Structure formats: C-alpha cells, structure tokens
Amino acid sequence: MNHSHNHLRKEANKNKMAQNYIASIPFDHRLYRQDIKGSIAHTKMLEKQGIITKNDAAAIITGLSSIQKEMEQGKFQFRIEREDIHMNIEARLFEEIGDVAGKLHTARSRNDQIALDLRLFVKEEIPKTIDELKILQSSLIEVAEANRDVVMPGYTHLQQAQPVLLAHHLLAYFEMFQRDKERFCDCLKRTKILPLGSGALAGVPYPINREFVARELGFSEVSTNSLDAVSDRDFIIEYESCATITMMHLSRLAEEIILWSSSEFSFIEIDEPYTTGSSIMPQKKNPDVAELARGKTGRVYGHLTAILTTMKALPLAYNRDMQEDKEGLFDTVDTLHSTLAIFAKMLKAIKVSVKHIRGAIKKDYILATDLADYLVKEGLPFREAHSVISKLSRYTINKNKNFHELSLNEYHDFSPCFKEDVYDITLNSSIAARNVIGGTSLQQVETSLTRAREILNRESRSEG
User: In the predicted model, what is the mean pLDDT of residues 159-179?
Assistant: First the structure.
C-alpha cells in the first residue's frame, strides 16, 4: 500500500515537473491586455458574421472585461496547470459565464492567438521606443546648444586628430538615434499585419471577416499565408535587431561618457544620481549608469542571437520551441526603455568643463592637417604636403615646440612655400575652414542644430 502511495507521489512529482517546464504563464501573463483585446475583437467579428449570437457575444465581452479588471487590480489567480495566458483567461471565463465561454475559441487556435498577442505587444512598444529616442535626441540638442562654440580635440584611434566643436561631436549621436527611429518605423510596418484567422496552420472553415478584426485592432493589412502567419517571428527578430543597434549606439555614447568623466580627461562631470561612490575610496565618483548600459548591451545582443538560433531550423508551421520568443523580447523591451530614459536624464544633467576640454589640446600638433592643406593651397600636391608636415611634426616634437613657436626660417627649412600667414592657422581657423555640409564649422553646426530641432518638431506635428 505504502509502495503504491510512493509510486503515485513520484508520478505526481514527475507530472508537476513536466508541467512547470512546459508552462509559459510565469512570463506570458504579461500579455493579458493584448490577449483580452484580441479576444474582444474576435468576439465582435463572430457576432457580426452571425457565427455566434448577440447575447453570447455580449456575455463573452462582459466576462472578458471583468477578468481584465481583476488582473489590473492584482486579484486574478494565475494557475500554472493552466499553462499559458490564453488558458488562464479562458478557464476563468468559464467560471464567470459558464459554457458560453466555449464559443470564444470558435474559428481560432492558440497558434494564431499568440501570434496576434505578440504582434499587438510589439506594435504598442515601437511607438514608445521611438518617443524615448526623441527625448534622448532632445537632451543631446540641449547640451550641444549650451556648448555650441566649445572646441575639443577630435579623435581617431583614440589619438588626437583634428579640432572639432563639442556640439558637432554630440550631434553625431543625434544622427545615429535618428537612423534608429527610422529602423523602428520600418519594423512597425511589418509588425502591423494581422495573423488571426490563420487557425492552427491551414486557415479556418468559418465565414470570418479578417479585415474587420484588422480595423478593430489597428492593423494595416492581413496575412496572406496561414502557415507563415502562425510561424513567423520576423517582427520580433526585427525589433530585437533594431534594439541591438540602438544599444550599440548607447554603448558607444556610454564609453565616451566614461572616458570623458575620468580624471585623465575631466571633460565632463556626471551628476551625483547617475554615479556611485567607492566602498573604500572616498574621492571616487563611478559612472555606474553608463557602465551598466555598456554591460546591458551584451545582454540585448544575446537575446537577438537566441531568437535567431531558436528559429533557424524550425520546419513549418508552429513548433513549441517558439515559446522561447517571449522572455528575450520582454527583457529587450525593458532594458531598452530603461536605458533610453535614464540616458536622456543623465545627459541633461552633465556639467561640461570648457577649461579641461581646451586644456586637453596641449600642443597644436592637432593643426598638422591644416598646415598640409595650407601647402596644397600654395600649390604643392597633397601627398608631398603630407610628407613635409610629417617631417615638420617630428622636428617640433623633438624640439618640444608648438607650430606657432617656430620661426619662419625654421618653416623654410622644410618648404619655401610657407609665408607669414602660416601663423594665422589656429584652432578657430581650423574649425571655421571646415564649412562644408556635414563639417564642424560653427555655421554648419548652427545649421545642424536647426535641422535637428526641425526634425523633432516635424515628427511631433505629424503625430499630432
């Protein structure tokens, strides 16, 4: 007897283990609003098409609305044995309205239902992501405008290369985030395709009206192949791909913030709320927010790799592997939202040290390219001018002199083309000379700032 009891308990434990392994409710409960919204639209369509009666539809919709209130108030009991969000809601609907609840699933499968829920979720998250990118761009513009005439060293290979305006440097990130917004907009087009009505994989044998459901739920078109519709997760892959590129841009900005706030650079000071102190070194102010963003970028990359790997060998149509699409998506969405939001605030609160930025250009070797361009204007081919300035630079470094400290005779030792006006070459003249579209001259940067503001204003108007 005892042996039989133990056997039953072991079987029950095995079943519970399998149940827990299979269940998606611990994470897909997050889709409850999308699930209920989709079910209400589906119910309205079934009634409109005469597939269910008006009374049945009314009972189902009232029941679903009541379940949504329970969930929003935190009173809903999610049950692991009901496996997923769909079954949890449907089981509760039976408790609320009785057997009529069984009519909700007419002309629908969990396969096209989850595809719908996920599309609704991504469709809602994309505009939020774009709005957060706009707020971040606005912060960049604010810092750039406040420091529009600050000259800083521009770098290649992390070596000082040519002088640029700090505003020009910051606006480079405006451009990156602008492309990110365009990518998300593009992703939205391919997300706004209604999969509901595809059934399990082959379509449904009822006179449904898919265009009606699409209009109800704000989709711009309906899917044209039922097999593809239930097994397509491209829109998730695309969202995560856009997110990885955005996180990469944020991580580059994080890296610059970390470098610029170090005592070696001291270009900026990060406001207290976005730093932490050391547990043993009282003088330290660690750029933790920027470092965490740099670290979280790897996690978002991982989610993209995971979903691509999950999907890469799946035959049509739905396979349970695809349950793995949600946790990575949810975490990507949360990580991206929080990172964009905190960066917008952190940037606005940054203090720029003009003294340290100018002081970083200790020698005027950063003007070497301008001297080469000077010789070109005097008639030397650029390659020859480059060679002359290369030798001249080595000479000044060995003598520990600046270019403007050299005599005209010293200049003539390297080329007879140098004249008195060589001393007119300064940091400011270097900046002013680059007055081409996309250049770092003050005039071009003013134009870029105006353009950046206009882009954000135009986008706000088109939304309004």
Answer: 97
Residue with tokens 């513009």: 141
* Mean of the per-residue pLDDT values of the chain: 94
Distance CA 358, CA 431 (A): 14
Distance of CA 113 to CAs 66, 84, 405, Å? 20, 12, 75
Residue type, 428: N
What's this model's pTM, rounded to 2 decimal places?
0.93
Q: What is the pLDDT of residue 1?
A: 47
Taking only the tens place, the pLDDT of each residue in 114-135 is 999 999 999 999 999 999 999 9
Half-sphere exposure (Cβ direction) of 146: Cα atoms closer than 13 Å: 14
Residue 448's DSSP bridge partners are none
Q: What pLDDT sits at residue 136? A: 98
State the distance between the two ends of the chain, measured CA to CA, in whole angstroms: 73
| pLDDT above 70 coverage of the chain, percent | 95
Domains and CATH numbers, the chain: 2-103 (1.10.275.10), 110-155+163-360 (1.20.200.10), 364-463 (1.10.40.30)
Give how far Cα 169 sits from Cα of 100, 124, 154, 285, Å.
63, 33, 8, 24
Q: Of 65, 262, 278, 460, which is the active-site residue?
A: 278
- DSSP secondary structure code for residue 315 in this structure: P
Backbone φ/ψ region at 157: left (φ over 0), alpha (ψ -120 to 50), beta = left
Q: Which among 237, 262, 197, 225 has a CA at the least distance from the CA of 42?
A: 197
Whether the CA torsion 145, 147, 151, 156 is positive or negative: it is negative
Question: Which residues on neighbouring strands pair with residue 156, listed in sequence order?
Answer: 159
Q: Diameter of the chain by CA atoms?
A: 110
Q: In angstroms, rounded to a whole number, what is the distance separating the alpha carbons of residues 338 and 451?
A: 27
Catalytic residue, chosen from 3, 4, 5, 157, is: 157
Q: Environment class of residue 328 by beta-carbon count within 10 Å: exposed (0-12), middle (13-18) or buried (19+)?
A: buried
Distance separating alpha carbons of residues 345 and 330, to the nearest angstrom: 23
Is 42 annotated as catalytic? no
Q: Are 321 and 237 in contact (CB under 8 A)?
A: no
For every residue of 46-100, DSSP letters joined together read HHHTTSS-HHHHHHHHHHHHHHHHHHHTT-----GGG-SHHHHHHHHHHHHHGGG
pLDDT at 132: 98
157 is catalytic: yes
Length of the chain in residues, anyone?
Answer: 464
